[in-house]
Design goal:
The chain is of the alpha+beta class and 457 residues long. The chain has 14 helices and twelve strands.
Length: 457
Amino acid sequence: MGWVTMSERDLQRIEVLGEVLRGQRTITSAATVLALSARQVHRLLRRYREYGAGGLTHRARGRRANNRIKDAVREHAIELVRTNYPDFGPTLAAEVLAEKHDLVVSRETLRTWMTTAGLWLSRRQRRHFHQPRPRRECLGELVQIDGSEHRWFEGRADPCTLLVFIDDATSRLMQLRFVPSETTFSYFEALEGYLGAHGRPLAFYSDKHSVFRVSKKDLKSGQGMTQFGRALAELDIEILCANSSQAKGRVERVNRTLQDRLVKELRLAGIGSIEAGNAFLPGFIERFNARFAVAPARPHDLHRPLLNLAPDRLRAILCRRELRHVGQQLTLSFERKLIMLEQNEAAIGLAGQYVDTYVFADGRLEVRWKGLSLPYRAFDKDQRVDQAAIVENKRLGEVLAFIKRQQDQRAAPRLLTKSERRGYQKTGRKSPGRKSIIERAIEQRRAAASSTARPRG
């Protein structure tokens, strides 16, 4: 008879029926244990005596299913997919076969057929494996930066973004900072703290966010770099952009770790605001680095000092700077504002020239020409969000909050009355109004009484 594959149920039946044959168990007891009727136990017992243990297996084992689709239908479906829809997935291919060829096949059945025929790869087979990139050898040689938007304070505060600076050679957290969103000024603020604590690294490694990379290559203004890139160029720091998230996997993995460990530590400390969170971060960075940082391959620190850079000079670098054209009336446009330069000896000859605008993190605006600050007056201070403005996903939360504040400040428009819509103007005279029946009766009686009391001539 050969080898017979049996299930746990079949093995249990062999054991119980053997006890029945040996007189150790009754038919009723066997029926109770096997959850069968006594009649079925008698049938199994006859098959066991006649065919042995192999007679207890299911009779349909090895037979073709009664509802199995015919091989001709299967070959026809595979040929249609191979000829007309080779790049279709099982779901879409099943829909097309039903609509255009009147061939109804479930998507899972078609998935099995396509996988067997080599027309479809499972998700596991389609996985792309990225080879790990070796670490850099020295501290400060390459620092990966990224922003992670998350509910860092859970329900105690609104979601915010954590800016993460991590060294590629050692996995040391170099800088952490909570900010409302991932903007140029938030990175300027974090960069200032990084430079003060460690100095200037050789290069930063980031994603292709618009803070770091100009999306339009044919842009005529801006010298082909962003404000953050311009500031790094003045500080002699290179900025490199990764082509995929796997390329900067070190900072991506630490983001997932921080979303677990940091959130729980903030909960234990009872912190529920960005200011308190930023005050908590230095101690957390020290504990994290003591636990997870590794030694570099070479002991050299490639950070460079700031060379006694004055604070005013550093603030002039870490700001937003743009060139603006000065009109004949000594005016220039800036963010829906009209800037009028005051007439003095320095400003008189600037008509038709270009000046530099400096926007600092606190919102202060300076207009400079060859390093000289020019006094000015600003008009049309109307801050709003343009209709259909392009907003990046990482700044969507901040922009929506700004829109809500603006809408709350606007007064609800008052609906005009019908008289106001028709242009009716009040004359100032009061209408006597309609008198009631009682008032008219009283007046009539008073008039009659006065007429009877009047002497006759």
